[in-house]
Amino acid sequence: MAGGSREPGRSVTSKVLALLGAFDAAHPRLTLTELARRSGVPLSTAHRLVGELERWQALSRGPDGRLRVGLRLWELGQLAPNRLREFGHPWLQELFASTGENVHLAVRDGLEVLYVDKVYGRRAVPIVSRIGARLPMHPTGVGKALLAYEPEWFVTSYLARKLERPTPHTIIEPGRLARELAAVRAQGYALTYEEMTLGSCSAAAPVLAGGRAVAALGIVVSSRRARELPRLVEPLLTAAAGIAAAYVSPPASGYGP
Amino acid sequence: MAGGSREPGRSVTSKVLALLGAFDAAHPRLTLTELARRSGVPLSTAHRLVGELERWQALSRGPDGRLRVGLRLWELGQLAPNRLREFGHPWLQELFASTGENVHLAVRDGLEVLYVDKVYGRRAVPIVSRIGARLPMHPTGVGKALLAYEPEWFVTSYLARKLERPTPHTIIEPGRLARELAAVRAQGYALTYEEMTLGSCSAAAPVLAGGRAVAALGIVVSSRRARELPRLVEPLLTAAAGIAAAYVSPPASGYGP
DNA sequence: GACGGCGCTTCCACTGAGTGGAAGGATGGG
DNA sequence: CCCATCCTTCCACTCAGTGGAAGCGCCGTC
């Protein structure tokens, strides 16, 4: 037959979602053909669906004619509940103001950390660990801070997998990582040295609410200045505690205009 | 027939988008029934589609069982191109740091202003003019700053409509508004006094790139302190110029870690 | 404890909306 | 001019999607 032979019959919805899902941090703009290939949707079908998505501004075309996530989708995303950002952001600002370093807030999603907020200065490179980016847990400060407070079974299964090694400094030996996590629990914060990116190191503290780490607050400095990290731990812990307090009890403080 | 009688035959995609579009700032969480009603999608169809959306975490269920925009959609939204936020945010921080007032960045979308970024202190009420929110142009500072630099025909057609009046102070007379806009162009910034919300007033400056206002930077203070606004104009203009410079020429400054 | 309202879930026979391979354009580089 | 790449359109076929209705579970009320 002409056309009609769609073998397994994926639902339209799943195709739409596959198209959207084809966009990620590494591929934020795609041609129609790339999009179709990445999502596994036949080109002609992709063409039609993308047309509808474009009309709704879920996708839009850049000056180069490539497709990108549209304004409407960004707007919709802002409706996602995010009390952490809402109440945490001022603390990130304060931490940034008092230290002058890049600071960020992350949560765990699946086996990865998801960066939900970030504050950086004008000189910082705003590309690494973008808001919305995902990274593995074991090489990042925030990841270790989060992992340390996960239940036993979760940590065990996390460590049981083959762990990525983005730099030679990354710790991937299960035993050594488990000892690291114990140390994080003991001291209340995590430190990394070039475990994710050569040239930078970090400190991170969990945001503890009801015994669980609902997020982690991290601070990243150039590894040349790694010796300054200890000095940053105290404000880091203060801010993390502040976020936790704001998170558990609603607005709390003044509603002044 | 049983069921099969879908009269006009809306495409599945349009139904999915209608479902997503049913969420807005005023209705961020909905029951399935509300969602179906608001989107015009039959309940049973909504049920099935929402199921697929939930499985993908495009939607998720809050503790109350209501549907909300999911993490995946937020994440996707972060991929939307947003150079303004990227390069502008540090300037918002600086403006906040030097003034201690709520500051925000907005763009025009259609006939409304869309707030793309915001910096506020710990004491501020983080609800009003949320990031991702939309407001009409004429009662807001950023709206006037943007409108003033739109082409003649656009302003004319904007003023030709019946304008909303959120407060008694809102200026809705076309002639008076046109004069206001001329003043904005002449002095390079806009002022409002309780035109959108009783109790607050604002100053706003356009972010000019290539003769067009690509965004507007606004600062909001309690109307009790309206007399302090003039003092805030200079840092406001500096920051707006800074954003414009960062916007037109890419990273520009140091890539130091 | 029966009743009624409300919201969610499941069922099912019918059919037209969606399908996708193929052909046709439109560019652009060699 | 030819070939490669990407985008758009076409169209006969058919099964995925449809939506009204019935059933379920939960409350609060009488």
UniProtKB/TrEMBL annotation, chains A, B:
A molecular function GO annotation: DNA binding
Keyword set includes Transcription regulation: yes
Domain IclR-ED: 72-254
InterPro entries: GAF-like_dom_sf, HTH_MetabolicPath_Reg, Tscrpt_reg_IclR_C, Tscrpt_reg_IclR_N, WH-like_DNA-bd_sf, WH_DNA-bd_sf
Keywords tagged on the record: DNA-binding, Transcription, Transcription regulation
Segments passing through the bilayer: none
Stored Gene3D superfamilies: 3.30.450.40, Winged helix-like DNA-binding domain superfamily/Winged helix DNA-binding domain
GO biological process, one term: negative regulation of DNA-templated transcription
Residues of the HTH iclR-type domain: 10-71
Protein name, UniProt field: IclR family transcriptional regulator
Organism the protein comes from: Nonomuraea terrae
